[in-house]
Amino acid sequence: MTIDTIEELRAGLRECVFTPAERKALERELAEFIRQRNEALAAEEGA
Predict the structure, then answer these.
(1) Domains: count for the chain
(2) Do 30 and 6 form a contact (C-beta atoms < 8 A)?
(3) Dist CA 4 CA 16 (whole Å)
(4) Which residue, among 43, 44, 45, 41, has the nearest Cα to 6 in the 3D structure?
(5) Range of the domain at 27
(6) Residue 5 class from Cβ within 10 Å (0-12 exposed, 13-18 middle, 19+ buried)?
(7) In 3D, which of 28, 1, 23 has the Cα closest to residue 12?
(8) φ and ψ at 17, to 5 degrees?
(9) Angstrom distance (rounded) from CA 26 to CA 42
(10) Which helix (H) or strand (E) element contains residue 6?
(11) What 8-state DSSP symbol labels residue 16?
(12) pLDDT digit string (tens) for 6-27?
């Protein structure tokens, strides 16, 4: 997971037309990447 992956998903959600099911799946994937990033940042701060 990288910041680029998160930004690519955000751009895709903004600029593309998806079915409702596709959009929900992408939103879940984006939320999971953001959660992982936040956990990694919190671990770095606690180190």
Answers:
(1) 1
(2) yes
(3) 17
(4) 41
(5) 3-46
(6) middle
(7) 23
(8) -100, 120
(9) 24
(10) helix 3-15
(11) S
(12) 888 888 888 788 888 998 998 9
Phi, psi of 18 (to 5 degrees): -125, 155
The pLDDT value recorded for residue 29 is 92
Residue 8 is encoded by which pair of tokens?
């690519």
The number of CA neighbours under 13 Å toward the Cβ of 37 is 13
Task: Judge whether residue 1 has pLDDT over 60.
Answer: no
* Phi-psi group of 45: left, alpha or beta (phi > 0 → left; psi -120 to 50 → alpha; rest → beta): alpha
What is the reported pTM?
0.69
CA atoms in the 13 A half-sphere facing the CB of 15: 6
Q: Which two tokens stand for residue 21?
A: 């099911």
